[in-house]
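Question (not urgent): is this output format expected?
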Amino acid sequence: MILSQHFRSLLLLSILALHSCNDGLQGCLDKQRVMGMLRQMEKFLKGQEIRFTEGLRIMKSKLASLQNSVSKFPQADQSSPSSSCPALEAPAHGRKFGSKYLVGHEVHFACSPGYNLVGPGTRVCQENGSWSGVSAVCKDVSQCASNPCQNGGTCVEGVNQYKCTCPHNWTGSRCQHQTQTAPPEWSVVNDPAFSRKPRCAKVDRTQHCSCDAGFHMSGTSDSSICQDVNECEVYKADSGGLLCAHVCVNIPGSYHCSCPSGYKLLADGRSCEDVDECLTQQHNCSRGTTCVNTGGGFQCVNPECPRSHGNVSYVKTSPFQCERNPCPMESRSCPLAPKTVSYHYISLPSNLRTPATLFRMATAAAPGRSGPDSLRFGIAGGGDMRSLFVMQRSDRQTGELILVQPLLGPQELSVDVDMAEYSDRTFQAKHLARVHVLVSPYEF
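Got this back:
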């Protein structure tokens, strides 16, 4: 509000009069005069307020009239159609076809492989500047979600399409056709104990049947049956090895392994291990004999010392060793005979991988006596033993008997190895070890 010049002067004079009255009675304007000026000010303010209110009322009235006049004009969005629509983006995992957004033009949408379009595939630019329909989206929908494979087939997702892996005797893109072929060799037929009814259920008006583990589908679609899979035949020529080390026994839906007599099945359910009857006291050897464990069994042995000949004779010092009696002073052949003869029994599986060390022979000097300077090892006798075994030194005091050819069981053979002692290049004594090799009929 703008105050008049008269009002501003009157207001200033009143303020000065009041200020002078506060300083003292001298110079103070007459009280009635001051009250008169205040009443004039009050009337002036009321008049200004009335004029201001009247001005606002007039302005509101003119504004309302103007609004009424404008509302009677034709609407621009109703009379003047829009010439285009806002731009549209392609949906995620999809594409858009059409780049014009004028009224009447269409925009089309499509999804990438593996995605389905949800919503309108086409939208039209309308006269009101908006697109028809709602926004479309591309959703990842499994191609196998509808269970397209029939008769127990397995659906496998592909890049652009699915593929059905059909069970035996079924073929077709959805395993809908049955093949008329003979049952495989590994199928157990004509035995009620090895046949079961399939589990069937209808899904989307299509019957789906399946078999328990260890069975496969057989028969027609109207009379299907689950036949046992003979795992022993299926894996007979498996490159990874046989199911069982010895014998595979087929049972309904599975199999189990068995071992020959004298062997036990290990925890893996397929390997066999020899039972040591001598260690577990499962033998029947009589007194005076010694139990020797063999592959799948045992033997009761009582080796005898070599027979006396000339001045050479032996005495048994332990169940498996004989020692030569002292030689006469005048005998030249007696010192050349083996001073000791020992007996050894070795059990081997059939077809053992070679070379394989079977036996070690060594010497030990008596306390307080020096040992021989050198030792010589060899195979006594000849014949086939030299083609199957070799005797070689492993260190200064030890020789090894090595098998160089596989032995197929069951068989038993004996090989004699000797060790000659020399001191200052002079022969001192010879020791003989008679090794009995017992080959099992099995390769375990």
